Amino acid sequence: MMATQHPQPTEIKLRRNSRVLELCFDDGAHFTLPCEFLRVYSPSAEVRGHSPGQEILLIGKESVNIKDIEPVGNYAIKLRFDDGHDTGLYSWGYLYKLGQEQVPLWQQYLDRLQQAGYQRRQPGIKGSSTD
Fold it and tell me: Where is the Gamma-butyrobetaine hydroxylase-like N-terminal domain (predicted)?
């Protein structure tokens, strides 16, 4: 029997209007992950590449939303995005890691966009994304 090495989700809630996925884990952790963040950090080979250094910088994903969440066994979910992307399994461990590392990963994404000369848009959102 394999021991669980990471927390398990107790609640997964999609908030389509605000384009975020809320996750609660059995260790008390709670994360609110924007759909754009989940899309640009998709675990799919299409986004991550097949080896380090092959990651693809996605642009224009500010308005992306999740259409559907499909459970995969007792270890992951498949997210179907409204831009047609639906590959890559988000394991509980990966979702937890994204939640824990959200701030530096988001900054890394913003820095990469800036280096690429892309000006990120805030679609229909007034104020900051931290409210």
Answer: 12-96
Q: What's the CATH number where 43 sits? A: 3.30.2020.30
pLDDT at residue 125 in the model:
43
Give CA–CA dist 12/121, Å, rounded. Answer: 27
Distances (CA, A) of 45 to 48, 50, 67: 5, 6, 20
Q: How confident is the model at residue 123 (pLDDT cuts 50, 70, 90)?
A: low
Taking the model in full, what pTM does it have?
0.87
Distance (Å, rounded) from C-alpha 129 to C-alpha 34?
Answer: 9
What pLDDT band is residue 2 in, cutting at 50, 70 and 90?
Answer: low
